[in-house]
């Protein structure tokens, strides 16, 4: 009668332990590694984590909910196809947003529409109905003002203030230098203050 060695059993136990870890508790890089190994649930977890964020970035380019949904799906399909090119020394989030940003730019080049913002999607959640109405009105005015900006300035604003990304992350997503990000944000804030001051 043959017996399995302790080392082999221990190896199995370790593998089972790793399989039992809920996907929601894993780091992005571990999920990428598992997805590359054929675990589709790991990639689904990444989609769930970043779907809303990718949608916000693409909304600045597409401006319509239906178009945004299609672009979000296309972003995640492209990212999945290129997953083996992801460098784990960097953050998955910024790599993914760079793909979304490039797709948004390509879309904008193909179709130059007026960009509209939906205040219901972009408004921050507040406590009372009166506060919600005031906040929604402020958000609507701000989003309308942002919509008047060229995407060169609108996208960095969204990434910085809606998504609270660092200058370095924004630079990586947009493929520009940190000083260029700061310059665009400075100019965007100046343009916004003029726009809101005129209203």
Task: Please sum up the structure shown.
This protein is mainly alpha-helical. Helix content is 74%, strand content 0%.
Task: Report on the architecture of this protein.
The protein has 199 residues and is mainly alpha-helical. It folds into two domains: 23-116, Rna Polymerase Sigma Factor, Chain: A (Orthogonal Bundle); 148-199, Orthogonal Bundle (Arc Repressor Mutant, subunit A), CATH 1.10.10.10. Helix content is 74%, strand content 0%. It has ten helices and no strands. The protein has helices at residues 6-20, 28-36, 40-62, 65-81, 92-110, 119-122, 129-147, 151-162, 167-174, 178-198. Helix 3 packs across helix 4 (65-81) and helix 9 (167-174) crosses helix 10. The longest helix is centred in the first third of the chain and has 23 residues, at 40-62. The protein is globular, with a radius of gyration of 21 Å. Residues 1-7 and 113-126 have low confidence and may be disordered.
């Amino acid at each position: 009668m043959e017996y399995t060695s302790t080392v082999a059993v221990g190896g199995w136990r370790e593998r089972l332990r790793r399989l039992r870890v809920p996907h929601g508790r894993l780091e992005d890089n571990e999920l990428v590694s598992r997805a590359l190994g054929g675990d589709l649930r790991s990639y689904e977890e990444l989609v769930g984590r970043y779907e809303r964020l990718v949608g916000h970035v693409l909304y600045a380019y597409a401006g319509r909910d239906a178009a945004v949904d299609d672009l979000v799906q296309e972003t995640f399909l492209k990212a999945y196809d290129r997953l083996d090119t992801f460098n784990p020394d960097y953050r998955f989030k910024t790599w993914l947003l760079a793909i979304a940003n490039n797709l948004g730019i390509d879309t904008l080049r193909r179709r130059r529409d007026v960009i509209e913002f939906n205040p219901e999607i972009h408004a921050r959640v507040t406590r009372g109905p009166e506060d919600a109405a005031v906040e929604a009105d402020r958000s609507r005015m701000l989003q309308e003002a942002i919509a008047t900006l060229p995407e060169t300035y609108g996208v960095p604003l969204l990434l910085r203030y809606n998504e609270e990304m660092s200058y370095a992350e924004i630079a990586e997503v947009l493929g520009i230098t940190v000083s260029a990000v700061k310059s665009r944000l400075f100019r965007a804030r100046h343009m916004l203050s003029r726009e809101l001051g005129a209203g």
